[in-house]
Design a protein that fits this description.
It is a single chain. By secondary structure, the chain is α/β, with parallel strands linked by helices. Helices cover 27% and strands 16% of the residues. It folds into 4 domains: 14-33 and 507-561, Alpha-Beta Plaits; 37-118 and 452-497, Fumarate Reductase Iron-sulfur Protein, Chain B, domain 2; 129-225 and 379-440, FAD/NAD(P)-binding domain (3-Layer(bba) Sandwich), CATH 3.50.50.60; 230-377, FAD/NAD(P)-binding domain, CATH 3.50.50. The chain has helices at 37-41, 48-56, 60-67, 74-80, 84-88, 100-114, 137-148, 165-168, 177-188, 207-213, 242-252, 268-280, 308-316, 422-440, 491-499, 513-517, 548-551, and strands at 28-31, 129-133, 152-156, 193-196, 216-219, 225-226, 260-265, 284-288, 320-322, 325-333, 336-349, 355-359, 365-368, 371-375, 378-379, 409-411, 523-525, 536-538, 558-561. It has a 5-stranded parallel sheet, with helices on both faces. A 4-stranded parallel sheet has the order 9-8-7-14, with helices on one face. Strands 10, 11, 12 and 13 form a 4-stranded antiparallel sheet that branches. The longest helix has 19 residues, at 422-440. It is globular and about 115 Å long.
Amino acid sequence: MVVINRGAHAEPGTSLLFKTGNWRSTECPSHVHTKAPCHAACPAGEDQQAWFAWLQEGHVELAWRELVRANPLPAVTGRVCPHPCEAACNRNAIDAPLAIHNVERWLGDEAIAKGWAYPVAPPAEDAPVVAIVGSGPGGLSAAYHCVRLGLRAEIFEALPEAGGLLRSAIPPTRLPRPALDAELNRLLALPGITINLRCKLGRDVTLDELGRSHDAVILAPGCQESKEWNVDGAVPTDLHEGLHLLREFMDHGEFPAAHHVAVHGGGNTAIDLCRMMKRHGVEQVTLITASALPGPDTDPADLINVVPRELEEALEEGIEIVEHATVKRLIMKGSRVTGVEIVSLKKLTGTDGRKHRVQFEGTERVVSVDMVIPCIGERVKADGLHSLLSRRHYLDATDPWGRTPQENVFAIGDARGDRGTVAEAIGDGRLAVEAVAAKLFGLPDPVRDDRGEMPAAGLNTVYFGPIERARVPKLPVADRTFEAEIEGDIGRLGALREATRCLSCGNCLACDNCWVMCPDNAVIKTAELASDGSHYLFDLDYCKGCGICANECPTGFIQMRTDTWQDSDQTV
C-alpha cells in the first residue's frame, strides 16, 4: 500500500491573497495612549512617564527639558511637594513606588549645575504683556509659561525678594536657600520677564490700573491673612498664629519662650512649626489634628494633608500627634492659657447625607500647655482685591483656567481657596497662561486632557521583576539643625537606576512582543515613529482578533476594541 502525503507549493507572497482579517468577529487591537497614574495625579501637570523614558535611554538633559515643559521649578518641587504621583504609581502593586521626587530634585539641581537653558525662545518685542501679581510658585510658573507661549510677563511683588511662601514659610531644612535662589534667579533672568519688588497691590498699583496697562492680569497673591480662631469665644492674650510665628522665626531666629506647646491644625505649616519649635528647645510639642495618620485602613479623604516624609521625620524627632481630635476648651489663668481640653472626633452622616466630624462625648482629656498655636489656614488679604473676593475671603475663579468674573483677570494658587500646595499653584499658573494665550492670539479655548488612566490591573506585570526602590541618605535626628537639609541627593547612578523601575504605564515600550507573538504576522514594525508614537501598525486585513498582542503587552498600550476595519486608523 502506498502512503501519499498531500501537500502544495505556494509562490512567495501568495498567502497575502487570503485576507484572513475577514474571519475576525468583533474585536481588533488598537493602540490606546492612556495617562500613567503619576501623570494623572500630578497637580503641576508633569508627565513623569515621558521624562523617565528619556532617562531610561540615558538622555538626562532631554528628561529635564520634558519635565520643565510643565514645571519650571523642579529643584523646588522635588524638595517640598507631597508628590501624590508616588502614591498613585502602579509600581506599588509590585514592590514600592518610584522615587519620583528624588529624581525630580536631582534633575533640577543638575540643570542648575550644568547651566542648561530653559527650552523657550524670547518673545517678540511687541508681544502682549501679562501683569502677574505675586512671585510665589504660581506667579513664577505663570511668568515662565508666558514666555514659553510667546507672551511677556511683568511681575508685581510686595516683598523685597521673590519667592512668596517658598522663601518666607518653608524652612531651609526642606528647601535650602541656595537651591531656591539658584532656581528663581535662572527663571527670572529669562528674556521677557520683568519683576517689580516692593510693589504692593492696593498701595502702589491698583487692579484697574493693571487692567488698563496690560493685556491680561493673573492674580497670585497667596493667602497672607490668618483665619480667626477661638474656642467658645476664648482667645489667649498672647495668641500666636502658626504661619505668622513661622515667618517671624525665619526672619529673626527666635520663638516666644514656652515649655509645653499645643499646635492645632493638620497641614505642612503645622508640621514645620512643630519640628522647628522642638529643635529650638521646647520640651513637649503636641499636634492636635482632626485628620487621620496613615494606616492600612485610613480613608484617603481623611488623611492628614502633609508631605509623608515630613510626617515620618516629625515622629522621629519626638513630635506627639493626636489624631481625630480637636480643642474643646481652653484652660486659662487670667488671660493666659495653662492647658487645653482635647476631645476625640468621629465622622457621622448628617441629615444632608454628607459626613461631618462630631465630638465624641466622654473622650475629653486635659493636656497642660503654656502656649497654644492655631494653624487652621489662611485667607486672602482684601487689599486691592475687594471686587473679586468671595464671602469666604478667597478669589472668585470660575473654572480650571482661573477665569474670574472680571474680563481678562485670572486667579491662581491658594488664593482660590481650593489649591493648597506648591505643585497645585504651578499647575494653575500654566493653565491660566494657556487660556490667556489662546484669547490674545485668537486661538480656540484650551481643552482638558480627558484621556483615561491606566490602572495596575491593565498591565501585564509578569514582564516586570521586583527592583528595590533607591535609598537616599538622611541626616540622623541628632544632626538635624535649623539650616542643614535633612534629605540627601539620589545622585546620577541612583536616578538612572530608578528610571529602570518605571513601568511606562499606558505607553509603548518598543518591546517587540506584539510583533514577535502575532500568529498572523498582522503587526508591522516601522522604521519611523507612527502617529501614535509607536513603531508598530496593525494590518487589519490579516488580524483575526485573537488578542495575543493585547494580552502580552506589558504596559496596556494595546487594547482590544470593537472598531471595524473602516473605523480603525491602524489599517495599512
